Amino acid sequence: MLAGAGSGKTLTISGKVKYLVDKKKIAPEKILLISYTRKAAEEMTDRIVKKLNVNVQSSTFHKLGLEIIKEYRGNRPSIAEENALSNAVEHYIEKELYQDKKQVERIIKFFSYYINIPRDYSDFKTLGEYHEHCKNLEFVPLKEKVNKKVFIDNASDTRKKELKTLKKEKVKSIEEVMIANFLFLNSVEYVYEENYKHKTEDARFRQYKPDFYLPEYDIYLEHFGLSEDGRVPWLSGGEAQKYLDGVKWKRNLHKEHGTKMIETYSYYNKKGILFTKLREELESNGIKMYEIDYQEIFSIIFNQDQKEKHFGDFIKLISTFIGLFKSNGYTENTLYDFIEKNKKEENNAFIRDRTDIFFNFIKPIYMHYEDKLSGKKEIDFNDMINQATEIIQSGEVTRDYKYIMIDEYQDISQSRFNLVQAIQEQTSAKVVCVGDDWQSIYRFAGSDVQLFTEFGKFFGNHELMRIEKTYRNSQELIDVAGNFVMQNPSQLIKNLTSSKQVVEESPIKIIGFDNNIQKALVDAIDQIVTNYGEDAEIMLLGRNKSDLDKVIDSADFKKKYDRKANFFTVVYNKYHDVKLFFLTAHRSKGLEASHVILINADNKINGFPNKMVDDPIQSWVLTDSDDYLYGEERRLFYVALTRTKNDCYILTQEERMSAFVRELINEYKIPYQSVTKGKSVLNNPNCPRCKSGYLTRKEKTNFIFCTNFSGGCDYKAHNSELIDNPILCDSCGDFMVVRKGPRGEFLGCNNYRFEVCSNSKDLPKGYKKRKSAKG
């Protein structure tokens, strides 16, 4: 049964059970009814037994597995705590890892080279999409992360340590981060964007600053964003020509002054050979490389007081992988098979090397976890389900069911599926599964959505039934939310309907802010109170547990933990009667509220979508990897949107707007408002270089730059007319600016100074130049 959010799945299952017992005369003990949580099982049992007067008990997979093992062994096994795996991973990295030099080297290299998977410019429709992607990546090289007072020079046999103040360094692209880290880990001293030794600045251009300078060898290194045919397909028109002219100018400049320049290119990265080519270039130019002391670096970056920024996400990745690995019934030998198979993969060399480091890194962690379980004479959930499956398959324990009914089947894991399949094959029972693939959001706990969407592939002949009427959301909301989640072609098609209609413009509203998210939160609460009164119930939804503290960081809000409800309530000084409570999007599944405010809809690593959870490494332990970009995060966003019975407010930082929010605005025309002081940046012209960013002005100056600056877009100008009176050049797509000529003022292309475009036209009638921001 394919059911939509708020469509009454529990009621449907209860009705089916009563029908089987009362009409089909199936004995209650012949029905195996499975729910995913103890609370859900209790609610299901209460509804069926007390309200429908049918004596069918709902069980969890946990309880079912325990009963089978207990019957076989004659005693109850000891089950590890729910967070035993993540605790074991943390313990290993914090207490055991440092003793293994090879493991320390692996984690340093993973964070230096492989924590982000670089994507080629050609993967994006516009340069803006690339810069939006890069905004969530960290452009701080490893050298900057090392304690500022400690510089390790491994080029010396004595490994002399000297005090040195390191320049605050942030590079402009993920590829430059990779190059900087390669140089640092191989003891090649470099300076980032040092002024070229010969003067080049003039009235039109600033001083030339090559990407890297290697002072010990007096060699410059430039990384060019060129394709294999020497083009820049990620730029168009005048911008592409400007870039190519810049490459030519740099080559001629070095030739003219007799300075040495090493070149690397973006297509190296696309082919996965950036490190190979870089090493070849360095060696051919006589540059000596010595690997740095990885343990010293580890002790600085991964110490207790200064955890690496993405350390927690990395632990989640490891824990998720091992959980999925065990869910499949895999063993230590399987991991060795994975390592050997990966070596023969003909895919991108970067991905192959990344996978190899990851597999070899988690191998001792997996064994560490298994040893901990063995030492405590415990088994974890996956062990329990796998053992129960083996017992059923051996025939040592038998069951006699006519029907197996499973609620929330979209959360099924491989191990749970194996157990259900074993019982079905033993009993020939009919299987009834109810769920919603649009709400499959627990991959980190082992869930595999393909077991739902490809149901026939695993169970054979079947009938698909749909429950498409929803009682929670308005038709206007489910139209948007449904179309949004179905952008992923792997999702099953549903046409949800609702009798609820909204009179207002949209039940979804987006509020943008600059740096003050509290102002956006207050605005959303004010709107809800104005429309629904001070006794309104508001669910605050975050992508992460830590999101709440960032939003209520002011004296106006206070949080209090409700132990009974197991969530934080929030008191807002202005409206004491408003019922505010906080949940993560995952925790909110199955719940609802009159109103929802979604926070942290930002474009960053731990924003929404979260950029680390969809790591392709997991494809090794999933039946068929969902390769749609951020597919699970899109489903989680759908869950967040559909928790409301009335309206959903989304808070987003204007200059770091989530890709999901942009999609809602651009594709579904969701209304957007800004609480930013003055004019919203979204009302400004688009950047002519990357196309998706917006031009913005540095406060109290005429300096203009792109909002995608943090993602690497380097468009800039010193003319406020680009924002105040934007007129596009119909020749190259840049802006026209006021210039003075022999016959007076006229409009000339901003690219004129680069000798790229000479387009000009008369000033429009009535054109008035605004006063300078400095004036």
TrEMBL record:
Its EC number is 5.6.2.4. GO terms for cellular component: cytosol. The keyword Membrane does not apply. ATP binds at A3, G4, A5, G6, S7, G8, K9, T10. One of its GO terms (biological process) is recombinational repair. Residues 1-474 form the UvrD-like helicase ATP-binding domain. InterPro entries: DNA_helicase_UvrD-like_C, DNA_helicase_UvrD/REP, P-loop_NTPase, UvrD-like_ATP-bd. One of its GO terms (molecular function) is ATP binding. Keywords: ATP-binding, Helicase, Hydrolase, Isomerase, Nucleotide-binding. It comes from the Bacteria. Gene3D superfamilies: Bacterial Topoisomerase I, domain 1, P-loop containing nucleotide triphosphate hydrolases. SUPFAM superfamilies: P-loop containing nucleoside triphosphate hydrolases, Zinc beta-ribbon. Pfam families: UvrD-helicase, UvrD_C. It is an enzyme of class 5 (isomerase). It catalyses: ATP + H2O = ADP + phosphate + H(+); Couples ATP hydrolysis with the unwinding of duplex DNA by translocating in the 3'-5' direction. PROSITE patterns: UVRD_HELICASE_ATP_BIND. This is DNA 3'-5' helicase.
